[in-house]
Q: What sequence folds into this?
């Protein structure tokens, strides 16, 4: 008899509290992951099986905030029409029935879609599991909190990641709207109350980003997490590329169009590597002291903090994201990855299998393996960076890190 979602999560929570068991499970996951990707790295033909392990669906590009660091409005919205999201009936046709397929929801702010709960219900009916959804938390009403808790009780929804940039006014400044922190806090409390009322196995983490404006307040995120009753913090290192890296990537891909690169492009990220190292180390230490789980993406180990934050420096590593996850936009168009927005298919006209096995996807994957990582991929949240020049890349598939996204 299969275990219920509540029992499975209870066992998982207890296991996470035992360091030796946690380490053993992480080792098993890494071995399983390495076995899986070995075939892709060995064959070097760009093929990735019949279907992806999961789909990341950008449910909408609309948002209710005006974040100073956000790339979505100006970079990811390359189709130019925020509001033309797939209607429910088209969504139902566009995605295949496939038990156990992992879907994750991001945006934009996904709750700007008034029918977002219907969207999730479509995926639930198809047998999918929602690995995570990202939100800024400001418009989680009691009704939505109750519905999300119910989806968690049914075993569909696993994890919600809420983006917070710092305490109180600092978060408000970063998000561009006064009162955002209080609204996010209220949304989180509604969500936790609803989950507790149903004994729903729903994990909630806060996600923050290394940025010039918030670097000195990183350690305060531990107090923020404690205040909000959250026991996990995910950290995104700043993602950026130089103009030269964009130019070289476009040449390697063969498109000749720099607009397909959707990341922050700069010659100076405004961050001094040693300050970053000190602050991140301090944050990790405080998390250990307070018993708060911590993870970061990409995994920028101390030995590579300086080259990571030095523009133009080549970093070694690999990226297997396009071999594992399909990236589908709000309109049904599929893209090679979050930040290289080369269209590889359209789910309104093709099946997911046709897109995943199609020649555009295969060709780009093959080029990715041949080049190791494209220059603009060196500072992406999906990349697996080598901890040091002599060490292999660290795998990206970790329980918390897998859910770190920016919302």
A:
């Amino acid at each position: 008899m299969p275990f219920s979602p509540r029992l499975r999560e209870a066992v998982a929570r207890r296991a996470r509290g035992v360091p030796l068991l946690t380490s053993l499970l992480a080792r098993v996951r890494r071995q399983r992951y390495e076995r899986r990707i070995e075939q892709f790295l060995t064959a070097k033909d760009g093929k990735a099986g019949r279907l992806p392990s999961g789909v990341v669906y950008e449910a909408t590009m609309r948002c209710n905030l005006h974040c100073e660091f956000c790339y979505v409005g100006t970079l990811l919205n390359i189709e130019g029409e925020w509001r033309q999201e797939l209607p429910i009936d088209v969504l139902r046709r566009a995605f295949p029935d496939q038990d156990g397929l992992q879907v994750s929801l991001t945006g934009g702010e996904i709750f700007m879609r008034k029918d977002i709960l219907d969207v999730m219900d479509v995926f639930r009916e198809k047998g999918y599991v929602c690995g995570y959804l990202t939100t800024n938390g400001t418009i989680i009403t009691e009704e939505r909190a109750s519905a999300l808790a119910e989806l968690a009780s049914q075993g569909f929804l696993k994890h919600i990641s809420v983006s917070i940039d710092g305490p109180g006014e600092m978060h408000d400044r970063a998000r561009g709207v006064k009162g955002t922190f209080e609204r996010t806090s209220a949304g989180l409390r509604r969500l936790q109350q609803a989950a507790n009322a149903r004994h729903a196995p729903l994990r909630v983490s806060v996600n923050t980003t290394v940025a010039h404006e918030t670097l000195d307040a990183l350690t305060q995120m531990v107090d923020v997490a404690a205040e909000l009753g959250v026991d996990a913090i995910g950290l995104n290192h700043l993602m950026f590329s130089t103009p030269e890296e964009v130019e070289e990537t476009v040449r390697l891909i063969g498109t000749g169009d720099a607009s397909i690169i959707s990341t922050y492009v700069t010659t100076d990220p405004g961050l001094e590597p040693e300050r970053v190292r000190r602050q991140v180390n301090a944050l990790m230490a405080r998390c250990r002291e307070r018993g708060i789980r911590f993870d970061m993406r990409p995994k920028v180990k101390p030995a590579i903090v300086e080259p990571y934050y030095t523009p133009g420096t080549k970093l070694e590593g690999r990226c297997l994201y396009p071999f594992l996850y399909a990236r589908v936009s709000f309109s049904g168009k599929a893209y090679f990855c979050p930040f290289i927005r080369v269209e590889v298919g359209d789910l309104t006209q093709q099946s997911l299998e046709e897109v995943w096995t199609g020649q555009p996807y295969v060709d780009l994957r093959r080029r990715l393996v041949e080049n190791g990582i494209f220059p603009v991929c060196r500072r992406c949240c999906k990349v697996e960076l080598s901890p040091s020049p002599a060490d292999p890349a660290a795998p990206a598939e970790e329980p918390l890190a897998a859910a770190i996204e920016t919302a």
